[in-house]
Amino acid sequence: MKDDYAKFSLKSAFQMAEEYGKNAPLSYNKYLKVPELIRLQETLSEPSSHDELLFIIIHQTYELWFKQILHEIDATLDWIKEGRLFRANHSLRSVISIEKILVAQIHLLESMAPIGFLEFRDKLNPASGFQSMQFRELEFISGAKDEKILNSFKDDEYAYGRLTKRYNSPSLADVFWKFVCGNGLATDTHEDRVNAIIAILSVPEKYAELYNMQDLLIEHDEMIVAWRSNHILMVERMLGMKHGTGGSEGVGYLTTTLAKKFFPELWEARTHLTIS
Ligand code: HEM
Questions:
Q1: What per-residue confidence (pLDDT) applies to 2?
Q2: For ligand 1, is residue 65 a contact (CB within 6 Å)?
Q3: Is 135 found in the same domain as 99?
Q4: Cβ(237)–Cβ(109) under 8 Å?
Q5: What's the total number of domains in the chain?
Q6: Is the pLDDT of residue 130 over 90?
Q7: Residue 230, by phi and psi: left (phi above 0), alpha (psi -120 to 50) or beta?
């Protein structure tokens, strides 16, 4: 009975997807391509393991949000270059709103029983979140470029092409510091950058939009570290100290990534800030 229903709904989904593409007037399903979208979750376990659908949907949802974040940051880079800090800050705020959802969303996976995950985990080998092209794009565009990570994508022509472009283009950190230097607040040394931020933090109203921007950038940094931290705890709860499907040590490896920061100068400036 269940199989008949599955066959029926699969057949009608295919037929309907074709119809939507032809003469039907615009509708919710046609505009958003819902029939196509809900056909993109293909489980590998046989017989289908109950939690595999959740696992796929969560990952696909992350990838969609990564796409939207990259869209906002790409635009933000142009706005900063044009000196439109108010508009850039508006987009950065939207990035952070999405990231708050991404940080919380990882907990959904904790509703899986570890034994339920093990039912289909072997099927994923050797695929891993390590290979999330858009997460790496997010790291690169924010300022954490890593040649080793770039090279790990060499066998994936599409991903390697996108990542190479990101690797060779100015990042959010590059563009932010160029703007700060261009406004005479710093020359391009680490110490000078830290001092520029101390100046901005000391008199927020004097540098209102730049103050807001550094605040949003440090929050972007914070959100990604919070995501890493939640992801690690979820992984440990699910797998303990087992190795990852991508071949790393698992939790041991992931813990080393917590030190990654896109804007180390923003954090360091807080250490040296004093009341004058
Ligand atoms: C049960 C669920 C999950 C488990 C057990 C898991 C496990 C792991 C492990 C062990 C690694 C280390 C690399 C390896 O050897 O495979 C890793 C990396 C990663 N995972 Fe997950 N993960 C899960 C869900 C997710 C989700 C939902 C995302 C969302 C996109 C994600 C994104 C990533 C990313 C981006 C990395 C690379 C992190 C870095 O290198 O900085 N993972 N994951």
A1: 45
A2: no
A3: yes
A4: no
A5: 2
A6: yes
A7: alpha
